[in-house]
Specification:
single chain; 14% strand; 8 helices; alpha/beta; Rossmann fold
């Protein structure tokens, strides 16, 4: 039984479908009506392939919403073995232009949601369960204008280490994956054509990918490995970016 926060589309959608293809029963979360259709399409695709899945809407910046998606997973499938959080918000702005509203919103999504998702997973996941969070390779980069984006993701590295230490006695592994700039709308919405060109050539392996960027197909199998055969890896944040950056 797997719960995928932000599991409707893009990377989250691919993770949901790949988990289902491996035999997992999947609850995929979506945030709002804007992603409802995508969530329903992903559920239909899983069911058409012979898998089991449902979609659940919730605002995860509210702790109540996090409890609700775990409740829905337990109610539908009897428990949770795998919990993956792919949710996030990106903001690219010079520090002088960042408002208090910007700061509060991005930390609510990237830090608060991540912490309370980990907390609830620790309470609800079955023994020998697996937890994984999607972060960003900008944690290892010296790049301008991403101060509150990378800053709001940075605490989750520590949350991951701390949770792995606290939950390890129950055989639970806790990891994070930090992709490079990905070929998704999540990336392009913040970038100028000049910045896209730079990022598309910044990774050592750029010329071997269609657009020079990290592909969701590069990340989903890594996440799948960490929550299955790779259970011995815990407390780690793995930067997966083709050599875009390292730390």
């Amino acid at each position: 039984m797997a719960l995928v926060a932000g599991g409707a589309k893009n990377l989250g959608g691919l993770i949901s479908t790949q988990l289902a293809a491996e035999g997992a029963k999947v609850v995929l979360h979506y945030n709002s009506n804007a992603t409802k259709a995508a969530a329903e399409e992903t559920v239909k695709a899983i069911q058409a392939a012979g898998g089991e899945a449902i979609a659940v809407q919730a605002d995860l910046t509210n702790h109540k919403g996090i409890v609700e998606i775990f409740d829905a997973t337990v109610a539908k499938f009897g428990g949770v073995d795998i919990a993956i959080n792919t949710t996030g918000m990106v903001l690219k702005k010079p520090i002088p232009d960042i408002t208090e509203e910007d700061y509060d919103k991005i930390f609510a999504i990237n830090s608060k949601t991540a912490f309370f998702f980990l907390q609830e997973a620790g309470k609800r996941i079955n023994d020998r369960g697996k937890i994984c969070t999607i972060l960003t390779s900008l944690l290892g980069a010296f790049t301008g204008y991403y101060s509150v984006y990378a800053g709001s993701k940075a605490p989750v590295e520590h949350f991951t280490r701390a949770a792995s230490k606290e939950f390890g006695a129950r055989g639970i592994s806790v990891t994070a994956v930090a992709p490079g700039p990905m070929d998704t709308p999540f990336f392009y919405g913040q970038e100028s054509p000049e910045a896209v060109k730079y990022h598309s050539n910044a990774a050592d392996l750029s010329k071997f990918t269609p657009k020079g960027l990290t592909e969701i197909g590069d990340i989903a199998p890594l996440v799948l490995f960490l929550v299955t055969d790779g259970w011995w890896i815990t407390g780690q944040t793995i930067l997966a970016n083709g050599g875009y950056t390292t730390k």
